[in-house]
Design goal:
This protein has helices spanning 8-18, 52-69, 75-95, 103-114, 125-138, 149-160, 196-208, 214-228, 235-249, 260-265, 268-281, 285-308, 317-326, 334-337, 345-357, 379-383; strands at 36-37, 179-180, 186-189, 361-364, 371-374. The chain is mainly alpha-helical. Strand 4 (361-364) and strand 5 (371-374) form a beta hairpin. The longest helix is centred in the C-terminal third of the chain and has 24 residues, at 285-308.
């Protein structure tokens, strides 16, 4: 399915129709009993067979990821969009683990964070947890592949420090564990503590050479991480964060613009049943289909929303070329743009300044030292991360 070769209105109509799901098809995938017991898999060598329906779906996701690259929002609109996406994903991921903050409260914290405001108020555990997750979003580049055991430990530590979790942030558990809900119902017996490091090392070794596409790879990694359950507390939050970062690392870089957690966790019973079913049967296909469907829906909704605010639709072709190319560059000059488009420097200068006025590009310097770059509303956060570490 190649959206870029079709009319924009038809594209968005089709996306809206496909942004629906039928949960009944997953209802038969449940474990036969609880608690489900983790099965050791060393070495980890899964064999996955998926049909053409999956291939069609992932092709659509890849196409939408490319399409999002070709949509330009003003820096202000982009910031608002990301703030909403972050608030949604963080709220869904943390609330099922007991964080009491509402989505509106999470959005308020996110707004202050993205404005770089330093709070003099004492941070309670739930608030600090939200800030930790926001930090992981901005600094996802800190978790470049290849991953090692320390990557997992650092991620857990970064997400849980100051939150009052049971156990030590970043420290693998040294005791047995049974996973139960708030009412005491036991639904999972994870990996024995004396096998955790061996199983994680096996999983990380497989990850480095996985033969599968980004969605299958990230889904399998996520499931096995949750099944091992390496920490006393905070495994779900850590696993979902690693899953999101892994999708970006493996090529779906715009997955960070998708409200994925709402799609996955909105049907919590289905989510837990699929995890348990996969543990019990080692049949990964239903979970992969559920996750890929969730991702497809989230991408479709993001694409529709992005397209509605796309500033390119009102630009001439030359300005579109400059704006799209600028997303791949750091600071550039008028002379650099000469190699991108076939017009003179005077007209290039005019178009660059128009893009600055539209809040698409940033500008620094004067006359011959003038430079431009694509507007990054998060630049100040990356340059001064200390505002969340007081």
């Amino acid at each position: 399915m190649n959206f870029r070769n079709r009319g924009a209105i038809a594209d968005l109509h089709e996306l809206s129709l496909r942004s629906e799901r039928n949960l009944s098809e997953y209802s038969k995938y449940k474990p036969t009993g609880y608690p489900v017991k983790h099965k050791q898999k060393v070495p980890f060598e899964p064999v996955i067979k998926l049909g053409t329906d999956y291939r069609t779906r992932i092709n659509g996701i890849i196409d939408m990821d490319h399409r999002l690259d070709e949509v330009i929002l003003t820096a202000g609109d982009y910031l608002d969009f990301v703030k909403d996406v972050c608030s949604s994903n963080i709220h869904w991921s943390t609330s099922i683990e007991g964080n009491p903050l509402t989505q509106e409260e999470v959005r308020r914290i996110s707004t202050s964070f993205f404005k770089g405001k330093k709070s003099s108020e004492r941070r309670d555990g739930p608030t600090q947890e939200i800030l930790n997750h926001l930090h992981s979003y901005i600094f996802a580049d800190d978790f470049k592949m290849p991953w090692i055991l320390n990557t997992i430990e650092r991620t857990h530590g970064a997400l849980t420090v100051g939150t009052g979790i049971t156990g030590v942030p970043g420290k693998i558990r040294d005791h047995g564990s049974v996973i139960a809900d708030k009412d005491g119902f036991e639904y999972m017996i994870p990996c024995p503590h004396n096998s955790i490091e061996e199983e994680l090392e096996s999983l990380l070794s497989w990850l480095e050479s996985s033969p599968y596409d980004p969605i299958v790879t990230a889904t399998l990694f996520f499931h096995e991480f949750e099944s091992v359950h390496p920490f006393t507390d905070g495994n779900g939050r850590t696993g979902r964060t690693l899953f999101q970062i892994l999708l970006q690392e493996l090529g779906l870089k715009n997955s960070k613009l998708c409200r994925l957690e709402e799609e996955i966790l909105g049907s919590l019973g289905t989510y837990y049943d699929l995890l348990g079913y996969t543990d019990q049967t080692q049949d990964y296909r239903p979970l992969i289909m559920y996750i890929s469907e969730s991702l497809h829906i989230a991408y479709a909704k993001a694409t529709i929303e992005f397209e509605s605010k796309n500033v390119l639709k009102d630009l001439d072709e030359t300005s579109k070329t400059i704006a799209i190319r600028s997303k791949r560059e750091s600071w550039f000059t008028i002379s650099d743009v000469v190699s991108w488009v076939s017009i003179g420097e005077k007209r290039i200068s005019q178009k660059l300044n128009e893009l600055v006025e539209m809040d698409v590009l940033e500008k620094t310097g004067k006359t011959k030292s003038t430079k431009f770059k694509f507007g990054d509303p998060f630049a100040y956060l990356k340059e001064d991360p200390e505002h969340i570490e007081e």
